[in-house]
Amino acid sequence: MGFEKEALQFQLTNSIEVSALQFSYDDQPPLFSNFNLHISPGSRCLLIGANGSGKTTLLRILAGKHMVGGRDVVRVIGHSAFHDTQLVCSGELAYLGGSWSKTVGSAGEIPLQGDFSAEHMIFGVEGVDPERREKLIDLLDIDLQWRMHKVSDGQRRRVQICMGLLHPFQVLLLDEVTVDLDVVARMDLLDFFKEECEGRGATIVYATHIFDGLESWATHVAYIQDGELRRSEKLADVNEMKSAKNLYSVVESWLRSETKTMTKKAFNPASHVRRVPTVNDASPFRSSRHMAYYR
Ligand SMILES: Nc1ncnc2c1ncn2[C@@H]1O[C@H](COP(=O)(O)OP(=O)(O)OP(=O)(O)O)[C@@H](O)[C@H]1O
């Protein structure tokens, strides 16, 4: 199936459209109920939310990894993310997730075991423009002789990222993949993403807890709380940004006000949504949304 990319590009108002999404994991209450999201072409959208708010799940749904309702619920560049498998096969929709064992863009599932070189991995991806491949190898400062089972986490991550970007994506979903990268690699990669959006009209959704350098990088923010979209707007329109030091402090204030709201709800006898905290909740081993700040 040919996608007639350029014709589509002109017609599309949104490269990502989520309409009335419902989703729950087995035997759990719904994580998303009537969730809507629209992201326009060329956007670099930060997906923000506390730990467990649903960012990874949403990105995986956008990546077509979960079937959710009919063909019109999740549309990516005009196609059903789940049903139109060509989206992923062609590399137009790429997903870079948090772990090496996950699907790497259009390259499929990457096995972890075995003594493979970086060269073997990277050159194993077919149908790639050699110039783009060289550019990425250079950008990510990859030594093709690296043995994948002997390199550091950050070096392994560079190879993973390189493979995921080999095909020129139209939509790229990033689930905190820059976490192991050093500052230079991270900034160079962010610059590359910016070029891809500005030059080719590509769209990026980036879930992260690290906000350094993102004020001037991101064009939009989408903030979710417990599976609900709280804000979705241009970064330039975020009011709090006008008086805040940086994006980090704005996000910190959003997440802190979540905690306050939750505490109020927990102590409100009329509320059946939140349970009242117990003594055990003071345990240092209990998961906390503020772990987000330390990642
Ligand atoms: N495979 C799964 N089965 C059941 N529940 C899951 C599964 N994956 C995630 N969840 C639950 O869904 C909710 C959202 O998880 P998700 O991983 O999407 O959050 P997140 O915003 O990406 O969090 P983080 O910032 O910690 O990465 C959490 O309550 C989590 O426990």
From TrEMBL:
Transmembrane segments: none annotated. It is found in: Cytoplasm. GO terms for cellular component: cytoplasm. It comes from Amborella trichopoda. Belongs to the ABC transporter superfamily. ABCI family. It comes from the Eukaryota. Keywords: ATP-binding, Cytoplasm, Nucleotide-binding, Transport. GO terms for molecular function: ATP binding; ATP hydrolysis activity. The keyword ATP-binding applies. This is ABC transporter domain-containing protein. Residues 16-251 form the ABC transporter domain. The keyword rRNA-binding does not apply.
